[in-house]
DNA sequence: ATTTGTTGTCGAACCGATTCGACAAGGACG
DNA sequence: CGTCCTTGTCGAATCGGTTCGACAACAAAT
């Protein structure tokens, strides 16, 4: 059933019916309005959203582009949580969320072509290593906002304060009295390398009081980290605390510790980063640095809507916070 | 830039340009075709996807409806993995995936109204407890397919073989020699209650050989299960093996065991269900029953595309499989 | 040479909504 | 009573594509 058919049944014009249904730009007499509403209800009339979008030049849909190199392994826990927050916000605002196919920086240009076909008012983008693959779309002027990464000023971005987070983790460990401290992380993305560099700076700032320190590029994936952690914890002199680039790494470290019968936190403190779901379901609940993902999602949504309305939007950096659970305590 | 403007620049009609770009229903001379393609490339012409959808009556977009009661907590690990698989498939087929807002069985009718506005060719639905909230949409005749639940024949559905999975878990534990076995689970959804009932049947079938058994409705969430597991494992006579309704429950059980200094698997075997990401990142990798989520996603995608093409589609039940890792062994 | 058929192009209609401009009817004002 | 303004309705244009039907140009068949 189309609006035209409905109008015909009622002996009204399409325009009048449209006005009645939308409290349209023009007024409609009360009786007619009632008649239209009743008939629409009765016949179960649903306006075609595509036609409506064409006329409005608004789709009420936001595109969400995850940052994976390979869509087959697209969601990190981080991306999943971010998506979840964003979806929840979209729901409140009665917007749809679209996961467009076609973004795959590893593949060639034509793959990406399909992204242009996404019927969305704007994109929220979990930032990849570089934006060059998306340059065309950015130049096209569609509203876009980047999350957790560098944009070189091409588009506005929202970031957690990774430097703050790294120092919160270090300060916590330091103030508990630890002086043999290891950091396990990667330096491949901008956020993880900020954490790495900040930690490095903090280590060197206190190096005279530091008994021993390890700064290890272990990567950020479970299996490689497990190997590194087993090795680290098998030496004669081992750290009393390990700061991890994220919670997944922390869970691998905990596993290595348990395998080697090292008691956590009595003999070894572990602190993660992100406050993933794993942080709460680990057998010893993980102390960690919380990334304000829900707040970042709100900022991103506000930012994209502002741009859609034609307003400008500033970059934002949101504070992390320390969450102390059960994997950290004073050194033995 | 619209197709009309492009046509004007080239002194051609809209129709000819459209034919050239789409290898349209009518042929176009080679020279004209080249001219059009070159100009489109040069001016960066991108056909408006909304207009195209309106004309084609196809949006090349599939809606994905998660089953959460509350969109704020929408994704179980299960839903996230399923979404991930589905997205990957959509990507291969150059379809977009839409997460429509408006589905919230806990809220009133008008909330749901927005679902009708989703510009999609069909819906993939992670099944909620009952479909009544979606009856209108089903009756509207839009293609739809349900995952992991009961549909009472209203729409086709794809399920893992939960009865098979439950017996695989039991058989594994039983054949290792365990005779003091507990089952922890819920019976609120159709799949978890199949697992529960199957286990109950198996228990009773071997009851003469069974030394002791527990069949506990612990729920399927982490915190309540943790309480139940601590209690269960604190008694004088405890099970030598615990079968869990899912991997999250298994992780809570493992935590309780470690807290109580019960060695896994030497003193206690644990088996989960789903093969979630947690199964691999637990400090002792979890033996579990794998749900064939990628295969289910393929079946769902095939099913929805078949319906869109106007073909019929049969229900499918896909086999689960046993994955033995390190939480199961012979009893002490 | 006439008929038939194919190829390529164009204008117009269409998809299903929104919204502008025109206009008639009725009320308020001088 | 004539003018002006407001209210309510309609037809037509629009959004940006796709596709049908008509037709001209030309080649092949009779």
Care to describe what's here?
2 copies of one chain form a homodimer. In chain A, helix 10 packs across helix 11. With 332 residues, chain A is α/β, with parallel strands linked by helices. The first copy, chain A, has helices spanning 3-10, 14-22, 30-43, 49-56, 77-92, 109-112, 135-139, 162-175, 190-205, 222-232, 247-259, 277-281, 293-308, and strands at residues 61-65, 96-99, 122-126, 144-147, 157-160, 180-185, 212-217, 241-244, 269-271, 288-290, 316-318, 321-323. Chain A has 13 helices and 12 strands. Chain A binds a DNA duplex (30 and 30 nucleotides) through residues 2-4, 12-16, 18-19, 22, 24-29, 32, 47-57.
Task: Describe the structure concisely for a colleague.
Chain A is α/β, with parallel strands linked by helices and 332 residues long.
């Amino acid at each position: 059933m189309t609006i035209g058919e409905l109008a015909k049944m009622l002996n009204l014009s399409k325009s009048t019916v449209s006005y009645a249904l939308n409290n349209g730009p023009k007024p409609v007499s009360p009786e007619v309005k009632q008649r239209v509403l009743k008939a629409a209800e009765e016949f179960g009339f649903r306006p075609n959203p595509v036609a409506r979008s064409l006329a409005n030049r608004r789709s009420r849909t936001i595109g969400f582009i995850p940052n994976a190199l390979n869509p087959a392994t697209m969601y990190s826990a981080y991306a999943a949580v971010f998506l979840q927050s964003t979806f929840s916000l979209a729901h409140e605002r009665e917007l749809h969320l679209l996961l467009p196919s076609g973004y795959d920086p590893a593949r060639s240009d034509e793959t990406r072509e399909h992204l242009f076909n996404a019927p969305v008012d704007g994109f929220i983008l979990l930032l990849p290593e570089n934006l060059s693959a998306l340059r065309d779309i950015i130049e096209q002027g569609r509203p876009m906002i980047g999350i957790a990464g560098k944009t070189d000023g091409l588009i506005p971005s929202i970031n957690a304060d990774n430097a703050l987070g790294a120092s919160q983790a270090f300060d916590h460990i330091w103030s508990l009295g630890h002086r043999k401290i290891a950091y396990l992380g990667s330096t491949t993305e901008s956020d993880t390398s900020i954490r790495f560099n900040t930690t490095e700076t903090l280590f060197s700032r206190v190096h005279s009081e530091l008994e021993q320190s390890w700064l290890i590029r272990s990567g950020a994936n479970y299996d490689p980290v497990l190997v590194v952690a087993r090795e680290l914890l098998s030496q004669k002199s081992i750290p009393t605390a390990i700061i991890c680039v994220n919670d997944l790494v922390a869970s691998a470290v905990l596993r290595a510790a348990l395998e080697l019968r090292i008691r956590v936190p009595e003999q070894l403190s572990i602190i993660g980063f992100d406050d993933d779901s794993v942080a709460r379901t680990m057998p010893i609940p993980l102390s960690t640095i919380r990334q304000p993902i829900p707040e970042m999602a709100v900022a991103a949504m506000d930012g994209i809507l502002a741009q859609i309305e034609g307003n400008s939007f500033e970059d934002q950096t949101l504070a992390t916070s320390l969450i102390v659970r059960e994997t950290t305590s004073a050194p033995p």
